[in-house]
């Protein structure tokens, strides 16, 4: 099917709904509600410098991170939108210690889906006007009707996701998502509030020459990561090395650039972050699902991210994600160092 880049997100969802075996329209409505919430958050992010909404909210989240006002705002908008439509039976968020169950009139607990999200990732960049993002992950509930159950419904391995995506609030606002049938990117026309299919069938280049990592943590990196960074920096003309180092400090932005240009993003474990910094359920799993659907790879340095069995809601894992050949090369260095 030749992609119609004048197609709106709404038209795209309807056209592709048939391909999604589970849906009885609920998943489409779920994606549509995320689309709406993203427009509302985008409006605030775009005027952050003008109103008193940047800076700290005076609270910290379960991660012990200062909550930025926009973090809290974004979290509330996405939760409200999802609750009001009673499409999901539960929501987990980076900003909430525990998950939320949806009490609704119409037997909301029978709703089929749970959503896990990072409502505003990279929020420390807000005050310096660097792009930030929202990341979401959607599963079908596994428990029978009634209250969702943490272990059955929220702690599912990433290979059970039915949809995942991100919104990047950058020079333009884009919604990029997958339902397991490839990855498509939609750009918001803010003048009319409509998303258009601007990036059909997105694919990670098989290889690349951009590596994204916070090298300030170098001394604490595992030896395999140090060896791989050295490899990236070596002169080797036929392999287009040394690579270029690009690190924005906003996962969605680094991931998005690497998916378009080719590259690898790494957040290994460090002295400060014994298991890495990124959260498995609402950062690594959704980005890994998108990466694999776009022909890329995502691992913790040793095993596929999507096969990790979660043990807790906010658990962290080391994260290596991007062009297939680059992730495989990094894993080679990790395995070699481990075998010494
Ligand atoms: P550091 C943002 O807080 C985030 O979760 C990712 O978006 C980003 O890639 C990473 O942390 C930045 O972490 O330790 O390099 O500042």
Description:
GO terms for molecular function: fructose 1,6-bisphosphate 1-phosphatase activity; magnesium ion binding. Helix 1 (9-17) packs antiparallel against helix 2, helix 2 packs antiparallel against helix 3 and helix 5 (223-233) packs across helix 8. By secondary structure, the protein is an alpha+beta fold. The protein has 8 helices and 15 strands. It has 2 domains: 9-199, Fructose-1,6-Bisphosphatase, subunit A, domain 1 (Fructose-1,6-Bisphosphatase, Chain A, domain 1), CATH 3.30.540; 210-339, D-Maltodextrin-Binding Protein, domain 2, CATH 3.40.190. An 8-stranded mixed beta sheet has the order 4-3-5-6-7-8-9-10, with helices on both faces. A 5-stranded mixed beta sheet has the order 12-11-13-15-14, sandwiched between helices. It binds 6-O-phosphono-alpha-D-fructofuranose. 6-O-phosphono-alpha-D-fructofuranose binds next to helix 6. 6-O-phosphono-alpha-D-fructofuranose binds at residues 121-122, 124, 214, 249-251, 254, 277-278.
End-to-end gap: 50 Å
Number of strands: 15
Cofactors and ligands = 6-O-phosphono-alpha-D-fructofuranose
**Low-confidence runs:** none
Q: Helix share of residues? A: 25-40%
Number of helices: 8
CATH superfamily of the largest domain: Fructose-1,6-Bisphosphatase, subunit A, domain 1
Shape: globular
User: Mean of residue pLDDT?
Assistant: 91
Largest sheet: 8 strands, mixed
Binding site for Mg(2+) 2: 118, 121, 283
Catalytic activity: beta-D-fructose 1,6-bisphosphate + H2O = beta-D-fructose 6-phosphate + phosphate
EC number: 3.1.3.11
Domain Fructose-1-6-bisphosphatase class 1 C-terminal: 205-334
